[in-house]
Specification:
By secondary structure, the protein is α/β, with parallel strands linked by helices. The protein has helices at residues 11-19, 21-28, 37-49, 118-134, 207-219, 225-237, 243-258, 312-319, 323-329; strands spanning 9-10, 55-58, 61-71, 76-88, 92-93, 100-109, 142-145, 154-156, 170-175, 178-183, 264-266. 32% of the residues lie in helices and 19% in strands. Residues 35-45 have low confidence and may be disordered.
């Protein structure tokens, strides 16, 4: 049996009904909705997610927002806050793009994970609508909670072979003369492939002090330089020998200072593909073409227009404690 479009129920109503039937009746039957801090906070959280005109491409990842979905079989309709398409061996073809793309719905919620499964029910219904509309299977979806700023664990690839000319050992900062590339020199493996877990930094040159001098010159007059630079100096001067340990240490520090609560874990075996795979999304070629930042205040803004795709240090030194609000916005 197929439902008539005029009889469709709202997808968000499933969450309301599961959580509290009285709330559902007040909202969807009596059309009463009292604004308070929580509803306003939730509306702000959804504001950017429901920017339907915004589509973002990051290599093998395509992000769309406010995707309208429905199911005539279930008799429901609504919108996915964010719909991610990951290019891989499974999925659906997309017009104007090569390969197959696997869709994954992402639902934004204020607060933190709850004991009931009302949020999961709403996400599941979105997936069922997508399966009916796109004629494909949706293996999973994700819920992002605004209070914990957490969606999932991030697996750091510890078992792949080292990839040259990638951001695994380089970063970009903005100096008075423009974009400056900082390279961490690594010991050569004689042309043989080397697991990144075994790749060591090369200390024949004082690269740590050279990097610190460049960072001090670029960001010495930024608002939050004095707050973060001493920590960075201490970490680099005592940096571990292995490149993967250095990268993890810096990632954990930035996550901690910005307030990102996502947990970093190391892989134990190599997997050629993953449901959300960012390992090759920021190669030298992709870095300056596919990923687009929202603007924020930068040093030397009187000399250059906004410069994209810089190290997170640029955001940290310029925005400081406001960095987390910026990341929520983008």
């Amino acid at each position: 049996m197929d439902f008539n479009e005029d009889d469709f129920l709202q997808l968000s109503g499933l969450q309301h009904f599961k959580f509290c039937r009285r709330q559902w009746a007040l909202i969807h039957v009596e059309n009463q909705w009292a604004e308070n801090f929580r509803t306003t906070d939730g509306a702000i959280l959804h504001e950017n997610a429901h920017n339907g005109g915004f589509t973002e491409s990051r290599g093998d990842l395509l992000i769309t927002r406010d995707m309208r979905v429905f199911s005539r079989t279930l008799g429901v309709s609504g919108a996915c806050d964010v719909l991610e398409f990951h290019r891989g061996d499974e999925g659906i073809p997309l017009k104007g793009r090569d390969g197959l793309w696997q869709p994954y719905p992402v639902e934004y919620k204020r607060g933190k994970p709850k004991e009931h499964n009302a949020d999961e029910m709403q996400l599941c219904a979105q997936a069922m609508c997508l399966e009916e509309m796109l004629c494909c299977e949706i293996p999973c979806g994700y819920i992002y909670y605004g209070e914990t700023r957490h969606r999932e664990e991030i697996a750091i690839e510890d078992c792949e072979n080292y990839v040259k000319q990638s951001i695994r050992n380089r970063a970009y900062i903005l100096s008075a003369n423009g974009v400056l590339q900082l390279n961490v020199p690594v010991k050569r493996s004689g042309g043989e492939k080397m697991p990144i877990s075994e790749m060591e930094t090369e200390d024949r040159t004082p690269w740590q002090r050279n990097h610190l001098r460049a960072i001090r010159s670029a960001y010495g007059k930024t608002p939050y330089f004095d707050y973060y630079y001493p920590d960075l100096e201490s970490m680099l001067l005592k940096s571990p020998k292995r490149l993967i340990e250095l990268n993890n240490m810096l990632c954990e520090y930035v996550f901690r200072k910005i307030g990102i609560k996502t947990r970093l874990v190391q892989t134990t075996t190599y997997a050629p593909q993953s449901e959300i795979d960012m390992r090759n999304s920021f190669t030298k070629q992709i870095l300056f073409t596919d990923y687009k930042n929202k603007t924020y205040f930068q040093a030397f803004n009187n000399k250059f227009p906004f410069v994209e795709n810089l190290s997170c240090l640029d955001l940290l030194f310029n925005m400081g404690t406001e960095a987390v609000q910026y990341l929520d916005f983008v």
